[in-house]
Model the fold of this input.
Amino acid sequence: MTTQNPGLFIAFEGGDGAGKSTQAAALAAALESRGLTVLRTREPGGTPIGEKLRSLVLDHGHGHIDAHTEALIFAASRAAHASQVIRPALERGEIVLTDRYIDSSVAYQGAGRDLGTDAVRDINHWATSGLQPDLTVLLDVDPEVGRRRRTAGDAAEDRLESEADEFHARIRTAFLDLAAARPEHYLVLPARLPVEDLAARILERVEVLLPSPQGESMSVWDDLQGQPAVVDQLRQAAQGEGLTHAWLFTGPPGSGRSNAAKAFAAALNCDQEDVSRRGCGECAACLTILGETHSDVAFVRTEKVTITIDEARDLVSTAGNRPSSARWRIIVVEDADRMAERTTNVLLKAIEEPTPRTVWMLCAPSPPMSSSLSVPAAARWRCGFRPRPTSRRCW
Ligand SMILES: Nc1ncnc2c1ncn2[C@@H]1O[C@H](COP(=O)(O)OP(=O)(O)OP(=O)(O)O)[C@@H](O)[C@H]1O
Ligand SMILES: [Mg+2]
Ligand SMILES: [Zn+2]
Done:
């Protein structure tokens, strides 16, 4: 069952020291940088009553706590968390990232403490009125590795962490069984991967689940799904980070290179004040650029033949004008490989001597685009579809 809410609910699960908190923080930062509202929370805890329960059940010094009591304290804390924190945030359309949720109880109390995974799952479903994550990121950790990570800084272990490795091995198996039973709701990753690799893989999966903003029309990036790294790079450039005056979009026909260039053009000239919303897809600038009628954005396309030298000269003189109304004058050259050498040289000369406020975007098939089109310094051909700034120089 999914949340049926406008928001998105993601749980991070895995053994102690798996990297849950690290990855939850990284994902929150990535989503927030896109202007999304993220609520980060953790279990046990997340509410004042929950934090009290957390210390009851995790701190040493409360004497013996039997397994049923422990399981019910976790479930009580979770009931408060689900109804007071998680559901309201999801109803507001926010993205909720929780560090642990029901699976941790099923694994630790159900399997680790031998209370039975079904019984523990059932009391937790009752406690949360069936609120389940849209996605659970399971960081699968070798108990030995987890212990080493936790104790690396000499941090004291809490009541559960200090259990024997055999307890942690049972927990690991229980987590994997939960994921295997509902694979479409899980992303299982080996916790030993580098932090950045894990973060990239998690973001890639989450991207597919992101709700379109508040039910508005789609942003210009929506057509580029499945290429999160590319979208990130272009969004940042549109916000002024790493924006240069000329870009190459390489990739075979159908790879999306033209769509990417168009989306980038829309984001550069989008009317939104808030830079994180640039490329909104709904303002006049975005709409006219997508419709190819924006006065400061030219699309150059050759159906059959080559771009003639006169056309190229026209382009260059257009490029020399300041934008009439928008932030940037943009020239998107599709099929930039279909040019005679002389024509290429006319264009390249213009690109090498950039006019302030003009951005060139050249689209071409996989590398090498054409032996005659030499690219200004610092460009590196890469396989597959990829936008590249052609120079480090920014006007
Ligand atoms: N992918 C990784 N590779 C190596 N070390 C990592 C990785 N991810 C996290 N760490 C380190 O391991 C330790 C535990 O990470 P973190 O606190 O994120 O784990 P956790 O799953 O939240 O642990 P806990 O269950 O104790 O809350 C930290 O010191 C962190 O810097
Ligand atoms: Mg943690
Ligand atoms: Zn816009």
In short: The pocket of adenosine-5'-triphosphate (ligand 1) is lined by residues 14, 16-22, 149-150, 152, 193-195, 198 (CB under 6 Å).
